[in-house]
Design a protein that fits this description.
The complex is a heterodimer. Chain A has a domain at 265-548. Helix content of chain A is 68%, strand content 5%. Chain A has 24 helices and 7 strands. A 3-stranded antiparallel sheet of chain A has the order 3-4-5, with no helix packed on it. Chain A has a two-stranded antiparallel sheet with strand order 1-2. The longest helix of chain A has 40 residues, at 12-51. Chain B is an alpha/beta fold. Chain B has a single domain, classed as Rossmann fold (3-Layer(aba) Sandwich). In chain B, the strands form 2 sheets. Chain B has a 5-stranded parallel sheet with strand order 2-1-3-5-7. In chain B, strands 4-6 form a two-stranded antiparallel ribbon. The longest helix of chain B has 13 residues, at 87-99. Classes of the chains: A mainly alpha, B alpha/beta.
Chain lengths: 668, 159
């Protein structure tokens, strides 16, 4: 790649610097464009699989004994297309980001590889291929998380992520091996055909194991702990890919293995999914609303959204198992819409956070602020993402959440105690989640971007370069489409729903037209009309205001009122911590924050205060209660086992001999 | 429901006010009977504050003549300033005056605000309120009684 240049004795430094910069530029463009091209390919393949015939591909020589089988149906196509779309935005963004952050060559190479691995997962048509693609995806993402491995936090997050993702893989491996043994084949199609003969115990074991494995990938409670560690420490384009595309694979696994292949299960399957989904949603959003690290907040918001998706999946399964197939189809549509919306707004949010991080070097909301003046484009983009995440009208997440609530409210629960109990509780959980989600997003946007800068770094922020803006604009456009014209997704969702007969798929789902109509239920809504009404109202208010002002004298310009002081200071503003303080107080029992106020008095008198130190630490209570004992126990056991490894060659030889002896005795 | 009947029996217990005095300055808003004031303590001993609080309390009730104390100078039609202007409060007083929209009225309450009073020519003192900003109405007294304050306010509210 290096080009030989004639030695120039006058300006050697410049001569060296220029090709280096040009090479970095070329490498970034290559990596980004390959990523985006893979994304385009993914979208095209995915859509063709959704609307056309399912695609099969078998490469016999690639893996010994079984070969590699790809089998892309409508469901897989949906996830491939979603992943591809995220990758296009991230690929374009990465061109600018990699140059600005001086990425090394390794992450540049790994980025397209990670995308390729993610595209392979939903395309896999057999257990072996699926596991291979899954592990490729896990390994590639781990390497990318460790891009900035010179920082200790990154190494710690990487170790955490590696352990959790491998444990999850082990659970999936076990589940799929059991499944393929019981189903009598390696290919998913074979297993699905023979799934009727699988015993109840095996089904339960597979469900629980996959729930663990896929749940940890999707960031569901209590296996979410890697998300708030790995997402903040990974480079932002990688965070966007992981949070918007990779966690979806967990959901894909749940749908594909548990709902599509294992087929309709007993009632408690749906109930379990709903419980885990609701807990994840509420816990995730609660943690997001008190987080002060921008990317940590977004990571917890991912847990929240995946929780909502799982809740919708569970509702669809439960309703379908009780025969309410029409409402089940509605809940399933809600789940699919939420997945798409989350992919769009979370890509945008993480890319926006990446622009902020690149411009200021800060993730701490308490030190940000004032970016609306300095980075207007990024501010608008993040605003669109925050609106989408808060689930309000004109936001990307609104239609999905509305459908989910409608399906929960309209579930037929006459003479059915279970539905009569779970559905209102779920409505409560979704309402609480949405409410707290708005608080979290108002905090992220208001404290992070508006008002005055709280630090010199935020003061010196500059707008992101064009390619980063272009990547964000693409994701923002997707957010706009989902918010205003979900009708565009109607045919796509219909095809995917038809591939899911076990959750009411062959029923007519909600009609996604200009008006959202629900079959058999007196409820309709038109996001497009809401948008038009809002625009008209704003224009009307502006016009009337102008008209009212026409006889007024010119406005006088006076200094800001700062309570008599000379000027306002950024210390007068709300910080992220103070904004979340009431919530922290209300949910004190769940969040268990550690606050510490230390007052230092003057030596002369204890009535005079020299300084007050306030420290607060918002750790994840679940992590501390659940993970710390496990980690401690493993460490203790490891210490015991270590005694058997004293480093003596003789002892190791004795172990070998003993092992051989045992084998001989057994196989005698 | 006996308490409603009791209200009817007791009626208004406010003493009837005298006729409105002649106005000293035109109401700044152009409307009589409405005067929103922001209070600034420029360095008072708090004697005048107590009397102002008395004037606006339920016994004297200055609000029935249309005068009100408001929280922000942006909401006010004028300033009501007490005390001699100290060095520390000099700039804040000017800032507050600037924050009151024009046209506005400035009312100085108490001897200190009018001419420096007992603290005139003190080492930390800039001067009286009139030395620093233009004053429209002066209420002398150390401190002036609530009745005196209300009488002066009525000359501005016109009620």
């Amino acid at each position: 790649m290096t080009t030989a240049l004639p030695d120039s004795p006058t300006v050697p430094a410049l001569d060296k610097a220029l090709p280096a910069a040009r090479r970095a530029h070329a490498q970034a463009v290559a990596s980004g464009s390959v990523t985006a091209a893979l994304g385009v390919l993914g979208v095209a393949l995915g859509l063709s699989a959704v609307f056309g015939a399912p695609r099969h591909l078998r490469i016999g020589w690639l893996l010994p004994l079984v070969g590699v089988i790809f089998d892309l149906g409508p469901l897989g196509g949906f996830f491939v297309a979603a992943t591809g779309a995220v990758s296009i935005a991230v690929g374009i963004y990465a061109v600018g980001y990699a140059q600005r952050e001086h990425w090394a060559r390794f992450p540049l190479v790994m980025l397209p590889l990670f995308v390729a691995a993610m595209l392979l997962v939903p395309a896999a048509g057999s257990v072996t291929t699926f596991l291979l693609a899954w592990e490729l995806m896990a390994a590639a993402s781990l390497v990318l998380v460790l891009s900035e491995h010179h920082r200790a936090q990154v190494r710690s997050a990487g170790a955490f992520y590696a352990v959790m993702t491998q444990l999850g893989f082990a659970a999936i491996l076990l589940a799929l091996v059991v499944l393929s043994a019981a189903g009598g084949g390696d290919a998913f199609a074979t297993i699905a055909a023979g799934s009727g003969g699988i015993s109840g115990g095996t089904r339960t074991a597979v469900l629980l194991l996959t729930l663990m494995g896929f749940g940890s990938k999707a960031g569901l409670l209590p296996l979410h702990a890697w998300l708030p560690r790995a997402h903040p420490e990974a480079p932002s384009p990688v965070s966007a890919l992981m949070s918007a595309a990779m966690v979806n694979m967990g959901i894909y696994g749940l749908i594909r293995i548990d709902l599509q292949i294992l087929g309709p299960g007993p009632h408690w399957w749906g109930l379990t999914l709903m419980v885990f989904g609701a807990l994840s949603a509420v816990f995730g959003v609660l943690q997001a609303s008190v987080a002060t690290d921008l990317k940590r907040l977004l990571a917890y918001s991912t847990t929240e959204n995946m929780g909502l998706v799982t809740l919708a999946l569970g509702a669809a399964t439960l309703l379908s198992s009780y025969g309410a197939r029409q409402v089940a189809a509605m809940a399933m549509t809600a789940a699919l819409l939420l997945i798409l919306a989350h992919a769009a707004f979370k890509t945008l949010a993480f890319l926006g956070a990446g622009s902020v991080l690149a411009a200021t070097g800060l993730r701490d909301l308490d030190k940000l602020g004032g970016l609306a003046r300095r980075m207007p484009g990024t501010t608008v983009m993040f605003g669109i993402a925050a609106l989408g995440a808060s689930g309000l009208p004109l936001g990307a997440g609104f239609v999905g959440e509305w459908l989910l609530l409608q399906s929960l409210i309209h579930s037929p629960h006459e003479n059915n105690t279970l539905l009569a109990l779970t559905m209102p509780l779920s409505v409560g959980a979704v309402a609480l989640t949405t409410g707290l989600g708005i608080a979290a997003m108002v905090k992220a946007f208001g404290v992070g971007f508006l008002a005055r800068p709280r630090s010199a770094a935020a003061q010196a922020a500059r707008e992101a370069p064009t390619s980063m803006m272009a990547g964000m604009a693409l994701a923002a456009a997707a957010c706009g489409v989902f918010a205003v014209a979900p009708a565009a997704l109607g045919p796509l969702l219909k095809q995917v729903l038809a591939a899911l007969p076990t959750v009411g798929g062959n029923e007519a789902g909600p009609a996604l037209g200009a008006y959202l109509r629900l079959p058999g239920i007196p409820g309709s809504m038109s996001p497009g009309l809401i948008a038009v009404a809002l625009v008209v109202a704003v224009l009307l208010a502006l016009g009337l205001g102008r008209w009212g002002l026409r006889h007024r004298p010119a406005a006088a310009v006076v200094p800001l009122w700062a309570c008599g002081a000379d000027s306002l200071s950024s210390k007068m503003q709300y910080t992220a911590t103070s904004f979340a303080e009431p919530l922290q107080r209300v949910f004190d029992n769940v969040l268990k924050p550690e606050t510490d106020v230390e007052v230092t008095h003057f030596a002369e008198s204890q009535y005079l205060v020299e300084k007050v130190t306030y420290r607060t630490l918002q750790a994840d209570p679940l992590e501390q209660r659940l993970y710390t004992p496990v980690v401690r126990a493993v460490t203790t056991w490891a210490q015991w086992v270590r005694r058997a490894h004293p480093g003596s060659v003789h002892l190791y030889l004795a172990y070998g001999a003993l092992g051989l002896l045992i084998v001989l005795v057994i196989s005698r | 429901m006996s308490w409603i009947a009791k209200i009817g029996r007791v009626g208004r217990i406010v003493e009837p006010a005298d006729d409105a005095p002649a106005t000293t300055v035109a109401p700044p808003t152009g409307v009589g009977g409405s005067l929103q004031l922001r209070h600034v303590d420029a360095g008072s001993c708090n004697g005048c504050e107590l009397e102002i609080a008395g004037a606006f309390c339920s016994v004297y009730d200055a609000e029935r003549f249309g005068a009100r104390i408001v929280a922000s100078p942006r909401h006010a039609d004028g300033l009501i300033a007490t005390g001699v202007v100290t060095r520390n409060m000099h700039q804040p007083l000017l800032n507050t005056l600037k924050a009151v929209p024009e046209p506005r009225v400035v009312i100085a309450v108490g001897d200190c605000a009018c001419n420096g009073g007992a603290f005139a020519r003190g080492y930390g003192v800039v001067g009286s309120v009139a030395d620093v900003i233009p004053v429209d109405v002066e209420i002398p007294g150390c401190p002036p009684t609530p009745a005196q304050i209300i009488a002066a306010l009525r000359t501005v509210t016109g009620r």
